[in-house]
Amino acid sequence: MSAVGPNPSRVRCPSCHAEITTNVKHEATTKTHIMALLLCLFLCWPCVCVPYCMDSCQNANHYCPNCNAFIGAYSS
Ligand SMILES: [Zn+2]
């Protein structure tokens, strides 16, 4: 598994062996849902969407643009 950061990285795809710049998709994690739940309980419900809008509360999943292979995930 390649070490990847929160931004698109230049790596060699383990699947198609091409030098590619990864596609990054930010996806909600358990942490994101817990953050949303805590905001809901202790603050106000309009804040619930905040963790889903913040990249730092989500995993950055890296994919190959050639073959769509999963390269690695970065979680902050
Ligand atoms: Zn590939």
In short:
This protein is 22% helix and 30% strand. With 76 residues, it is of the alpha+beta class. The mean pLDDT is 87.
Explained architecture:
This protein is of the alpha+beta class and about 80 residues long. The chain has one domain (about 10-75). Helices cover about 20% and strands about 30% of the residues. The chain contains 2 helices and 5 strands; from the N terminus they run E-E-E-H-H-E-E. The chain has helices at about 30-40, 50-55; strands at about 10, 20, 25-30, 60-65, 70-75. The strands form 2 sheets. Strands 3-4-5 form a 3-stranded antiparallel β-sheet. It has a two-stranded antiparallel sheet with strand order 1-2. A hairpin with a 6-residue loop joins strand 4 (about 60-65) and strand 5 (about 70-75). The mean pLDDT is about 85. The chain binds zinc ion. Zinc ion binds next to loops.
